[in-house]
Recover the amino acids of this structure.
C-alpha cells in the first residue's frame, strides 16, 4: 500500500477493489465525508464499524495572558473533532506488535542455544580426542567447518542420536543444580510459612494455657511446662500437637488470639465509597472495635486492614454470645490485642 | 449516528443501494486500515487526515492506592480535522446562513452591475 493515501489514491483503490467505476467511487466518498460531517453536526457522534468513531468534543473558553503586553484575554471555546479507533483495531495493532516481538524472541533464544552448544562441543573436543571428529561433524548445520575424514553418508543416520548423547553428560549437572536450587527455595519458603503458623498457634496455646493455669494452678502446671516444648519444635507437623489443643478449647475458644472459626454469617456487606472495616463493624454490630472479626473472616480477600476497596464483598460473621458485650473486660482486652496484632502485621 | 444511519444517509446522497453502499464502505474501511497498519497516513480533502502516532510505554500511579502500573507502548490512530470540517462543526448555525448570504450577494451585485451597464 502507498505510504501516503490521498483522496485520489483512495478513490482508485476503492474502484479497483469493489469493481465500480471511479465516478461511483468518487460519489460515494463525497457522500461519505458529507454524511460524516452532517452526522457530526446533528448528533455530534458518528460510528463506522471496523474503523472507529468520530466525536465532537467541546473545548471551553479559557483565559490567557498576552506575553508581550501582560494583558489578559480570553481564548474562545470551540468544538474539536476527535477520533477513537474501534476496539478491534486496537487489538489488531497490539497483536501485530506482539507477533513481531514473538518472532524476535525465539530467534534470539536459538542463537543463545547455538552458542551454548558450541561451547559445550569445544570443551568436549578438548577433553576427549577420540570423539572429536564425530562432534565436529555435528557442527555442520551452523559453521561449514567439517572433518574431511568423516564421510557424510554413513554418519548421517547417527547425527540425530549424537546430540542427545553429548548433552547427557552436561544436562544432569545443570538440571541437578537447578533442582537443588529450587528445592532449597521450597524448603526456605515452607520453613517460613510453617514457622509463622506454628508460632501463632503456640502463642494461642500459651495464652489459653495461661488462663487455665490462673484458674487451676496446681493441676495444670505440668501442661504449662509443655508449651515451651511445642514452641521449640517448629519442624514438627502441626497435626501432632492438636490433641493438646482440644482440651484447651472448652476454656473459651472465642477469646483465643489466633483466628476464630465463625460458622454463622450475616448477609454480605458490599463496601461503599471510602468505607472502612471499622465503619462496617459500627453499622452491623454498633461497635467499631469489632472490625477485627470481619477482617479475620475476610483475610483471603484483604491484604491488610486498610486494603478495603469500594465494591468489595465482605463476609460478616454472626457474633457468639461470649463476644457480644463490648464492655466485657475480657472481650475488650481481646479486641485490643487483635487490633494491635493485625495493624502491626 | 450509528453505522446504519450512516449507510442510509450515504446511499441517499450518492444514489446507491444500501447493499452497494455497505460494500463500498467495507472496502473503504479495509483500504484505510491497511494503509494505517503499514505505517502510512490517509488524507481526505475537505475532511481531514488519519495518521498513526506511537505512544511510548509509561508508568502510571493510581491516585487511590498509590500503586504504579506499567502502560505498554502502543500505536494510536489520530485524526486531524481539515479547516473546512472544523469550520463546519464550529459554525454549524452561521454556516447554514452564510452560503445563502454569499450566494445571494454576488447575484444582486451582478444584477446591479448589469443594470448599471445597461444604463
Amino acid at each position: 500500500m502507498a505510504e501516503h493515501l490521498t483522496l485520489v489514491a483512495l478513490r482508485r483503490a476503492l474502484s479497483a477493489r469493489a469493481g465500480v467505476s471511479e465516478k461511483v467511487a468518487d460519489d460515494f466518498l463525497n457522500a461519505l465525508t458529507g454524511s460524516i460531517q452532517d452526522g457530526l453536526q446533528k448528533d455530534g457522534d458518528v460510528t463506522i464499524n471496523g474503523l472507529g468513531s468520530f466525536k465532537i468534543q467541546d473545548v471551553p473558553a479559557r483565559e490567557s495572558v498576552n506575553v508581550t503586553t501582560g494583558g489578559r484575554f480570553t481564548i474562545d471555546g470551540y468544538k474539536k473533532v476527535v477520533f477513537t479507533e474501534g476496539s478491534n483495531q486496537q487489538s489488531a495493532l497490539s497483536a501485530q506488535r506482539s507477533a513481531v516481538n514473538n518472532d524476535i524472541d525465539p530467534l534470539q533464544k536459538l542463537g543463545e542455544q547455538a552458542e551454548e552448544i558450541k561451547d559445550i562441543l569445544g570443551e568436549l573436543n578438548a577433553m576427549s580426542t577420540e570423539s572429536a571428529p564425530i562432534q565436529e561433524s555435528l557442527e555442520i548445520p551452523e559453521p561449514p567447518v567439517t572433518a574431511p575424514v568423516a564421510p557424510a553418508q554413513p554418519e548421517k543416520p547417527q547425527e540425530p542420536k549424537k546430540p542427545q548423547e553429548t548433552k547427557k553428560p552436561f544436562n544432569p549437572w545443570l538440571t541437578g543444580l537447578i533442582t537443588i536450587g529450587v528445592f532449597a527455595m521450597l524448603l526456605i519458603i515452607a520453613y517460613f510459612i510453617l514457622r509463622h503458623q506454628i508460632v501463632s498457634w503456640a502463642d494461642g496455646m500459651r495464652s489459653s494455657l495461661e488462663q487455665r493455669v490462673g484458674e487451676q494452678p496446681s493441676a495444670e502446671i505440668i501442661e504449662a511446662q509443655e508449651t515451651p516444648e511445642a514452641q521449640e519444635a517448629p519442624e514438627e507437623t502441626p497435626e501432632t500437637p492438636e490433641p493438646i489443643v482440644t482440651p484447651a478449647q472448652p476454656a473459651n475458644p472465642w477469646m483465643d488470639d489466633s483466628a476464630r472459626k465463625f460458622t454463622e454469617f450475616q448477609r454480605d456487606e458490599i463496601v461503599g465509597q471510602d468505607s472502612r472495616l471499622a465503619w462496617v463493624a459500627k453499622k452491623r454490630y454498633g461497635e467499631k472495635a469489632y472490625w477485627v472479626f470481619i477482617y479475620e473472616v475476610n483475610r483471603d480477600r484483604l491484604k491488610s486492614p486498610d486494603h478495603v476497596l469500594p465494591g468489595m464483598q465482605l463476609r460478616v460473621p454472626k457474633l457468639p454470645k461470649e463476644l457480644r458485650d463490648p464492655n466485657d473486660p475480657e472481650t475488650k482486652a481481646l479486641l485490643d490485642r487483635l487490633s494491635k496484632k493485625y495493624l502491626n502485621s | 449516528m450509528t453505522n446504519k444511519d450512516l449507510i442510509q444517509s450515504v446511499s441517499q446522497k450518492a444514489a446507491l443501494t444500501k447493499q452497494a453502499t455497505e460494500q463500498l464502505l467495507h472496502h473503504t474501511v479495509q483500504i484505510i486500515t491497511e494503509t494505517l497498519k503499514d505505517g502510512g497516513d490517509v488524507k481526505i480533502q475537505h475532511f481531514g487526515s488519519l495518521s498513526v502516532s506511537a505512544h511510548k510505554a509509561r508508568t502510571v500511579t493510581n491516585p487511590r492506592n498509590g500503586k504504579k502500573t506499567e502502560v505498554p507502548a502502543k500505536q494510536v490512530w489520530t485524526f486531524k480535522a481539515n479547516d473546512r470540517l472544523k469550520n463546519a462543526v464550529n459554525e454549524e448555525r452561521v454556516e447554514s446562513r452564510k452560503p445563502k448570504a454569499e450566494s445571494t450577494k454576488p447575484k444582486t451585485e451582478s444584477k446591479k452591475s448589469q443594470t448599471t451597464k445597461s444604463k
